[in-house]
Amino acid sequence: MPRSDRYCRVEVDGKPIVTSPFLEALALACERDWRMLFERLDLALVPGDMLQVVGPNGSGKTSLLRLLAGLMQPTAGEVRLQGRSLRGQRAELARNLLWIGHAAGIKGLLTAEENLAWLCALHRPAGREAIWQALAAVGLRGFEDVPCHTLSAGQQRRVALARLHLEAAPLWILDEPFTALDRQGVAQLERHLQGHCERGGMVVLTTHHRLEIRPATFRELDLERHAA
Amino acid sequence: MSSVFALLLARESRLLFRRPAELVNPLVFFAIVIALFPLAVGPESQLLQTLSPGLIWVAALLAVLLSLDGLFRSDFEDGSLEQWVVAPQPLPLLVLAKVLAHWLFSGLALVLLAPLLALMLGLPARCLPVLLLSLLLGTPILSLLGAVGAALIVGLKRGGLLLPLLILPLYIPVLILGSGALQAALQGLPATGHLLWLASLAMLAVTLLPFAIAAGLSISVGE
């Protein structure tokens, strides 16, 4: 995809101005354990975008997501947030990012409500009412004060995904969000992701599952084409 | 910002209380190590009294180190640390709260248990205030220093003995000052100098080490 396609064109006082994409990667390369996973990777995200990163196991999908979330440093290239390098903008990214990794930060010894209260407090504290509503929205009504280690893998995943109903960050980076979800949960999450993009949010996710419900802006990034 | 600090303290305390074995194990270790010495060197009270400052401090130091091995492990494995790193809250503040919660329940319990074991070794009761004070100032330094090592090795599959190898040399100044204070008190000399040194080290540790721990965690999470 040519990079110029991904720039926002905004008209101010009748004059078109070109703004940088919200998040972009320029000539990104990633090396793990002496092996080049991918190189010369460019991507750009503008509000409303949804990007699914695909590729075989070990092709660097999770690494790419971690690079975009600022958790890892790229071997070469650069990630930019609103046109400026990510390095000096950790706080800015943190305010705009919701990251749910493969391990989602859910403590088995804490209840669903305690887990969510803490994870939200890291960004913006959420009230008890809001947390209960979010848990109900992911189908966990009645499980609010059950320790998470007694929940099934799918239910634990739902606790983590309840954050998608609680936080206001525009950029969601989700590593394998569909893992362990049942069919109804998958459809619900797909609809929720689509809604987020239609409201001007951005989603980057990895999954091996083929999305049935997708926004018009849906794109796929195949890492195999960038393999070194 | 301070509300996050309080929330994290509450969360960590809750976690520790739901898994009390982790709190009790270092205390039992501390008591057993001290109890081993009279068995090994014989029940001569004069000898034990002379050795007691060193014994108590070495045992306390090992107990703190033992309790710190898994400080960040579960947070690393379940993805909590990633959430801390990507959060807008300053990471040094979060780790300070985490280490403080850990110290409040394991370090402080150790400080409170120490006089009992000291009396068992024949340390005179007049030395107990110095013992309490030196441990009260020293154990936070041990916890914070140990947390730096724990943060660096948390990503390794087999940390094992690496933490003691990395951290024990750094414990030497605290050990010298702590047991020195107690030694002085035992000989009837003033221990203020040692204690003031420990206090200044504690201040340095509280202000600087959270940044080192945060840097270590960022490295471990970024691997």
TrEMBL record, chain A:
<keyword id="KW-0472">Membrane</keyword>
<dbReference type="InterPro" id="IPR003439">
    <property type="entry name" value="ABC_transporter-like_ATP-bd"/>
</dbReference>
<dbReference type="GO" id="GO:0017004">
    <property type="term" value="P:cytochrome complex assembly"/>
</dbReference>
<feature type="domain" description="ABC transporter">
    <location>
        <begin position="23"/>
        <end position="228"/>
    </location>
</feature>
<keyword id="KW-0201">Cytochrome c-type biogenesis</keyword>
<dbReference type="InterPro" id="IPR003593">
    <property type="entry name" value="AAA+_ATPase"/>
</dbReference>
<keyword id="KW-1278">Translocase</keyword>
<dbReference type="GO" id="GO:0016887">
    <property type="term" value="F:ATP hydrolysis activity"/>
</dbReference>
<dbReference type="Pfam" id="PF00005">
    <property type="entry name" value="ABC_tran"/>
</dbReference>
<dbReference type="GO" id="GO:0005524">
    <property type="term" value="F:ATP binding"/>
</dbReference>
<dbReference type="GO" id="GO:0022857">
    <property type="term" value="F:transmembrane transporter activity"/>
</dbReference>
<keyword id="KW-0067">ATP-binding</keyword>
<dbReference type="InterPro" id="IPR005895">
    <property type="entry name" value="ABC_transptr_haem_export_CcmA"/>
</dbReference>
<keyword id="KW-0813">Transport</keyword>
<protein>
    <submittedName>
        <fullName>Heme exporter protein A</fullName>
    </submittedName>
</protein>
<keyword id="KW-0547">Nucleotide-binding</keyword>
<dbReference type="InterPro" id="IPR027417">
    <property type="entry name" value="P-loop_NTPase"/>
</dbReference>
Automatic annotation (TrEMBL), chain B:
<feature type="transmembrane region" description="Helical">
    <location>
        <begin position="21"/>
        <end position="42"/>
    </location>
</feature>
<dbReference type="GO" id="GO:0017004">
    <property type="term" value="P:cytochrome complex assembly"/>
</dbReference>
<keyword id="KW-0813">Transport</keyword>
<keyword id="KW-0997">Cell inner membrane</keyword>
<protein>
    <recommendedName>
        <fullName>Heme exporter protein B</fullName>
    </recommendedName>
</protein>
<dbReference type="Pfam" id="PF03379">
    <property type="entry name" value="CcmB"/>
</dbReference>
<feature type="transmembrane region" description="Helical">
    <location>
        <begin position="194"/>
        <end position="219"/>
    </location>
</feature>
<comment type="function">
    <text>Required for the export of heme to the periplasm for the biogenesis of c-type cytochromes.</text>
</comment>
<feature type="transmembrane region" description="Helical">
    <location>
        <begin position="54"/>
        <end position="72"/>
    </location>
</feature>
<dbReference type="GO" id="GO:0005886">
    <property type="term" value="C:plasma membrane"/>
</dbReference>
<dbReference type="InterPro" id="IPR003544">
    <property type="entry name" value="Cyt_c_biogenesis_CcmB"/>
</dbReference>
<dbReference type="InterPro" id="IPR026031">
    <property type="entry name" value="Cyt_c_CcmB_bac"/>
</dbReference>
<feature type="transmembrane region" description="Helical">
    <location>
        <begin position="93"/>
        <end position="118"/>
    </location>
</feature>
<keyword id="KW-0472">Membrane</keyword>
<keyword id="KW-0201">Cytochrome c-type biogenesis</keyword>
<keyword id="KW-1133">Transmembrane helix</keyword>
<comment type="similarity">
    <text>Belongs to the CcmB/CycW/HelB family.</text>
</comment>
<keyword id="KW-1003">Cell membrane</keyword>
<feature type="transmembrane region" description="Helical">
    <location>
        <begin position="161"/>
        <end position="182"/>
    </location>
</feature>
<feature type="transmembrane region" description="Helical">
    <location>
        <begin position="130"/>
        <end position="154"/>
    </location>
</feature>
<dbReference type="GO" id="GO:0015232">
    <property type="term" value="F:heme transmembrane transporter activity"/>
</dbReference>
<keyword id="KW-0812">Transmembrane</keyword>
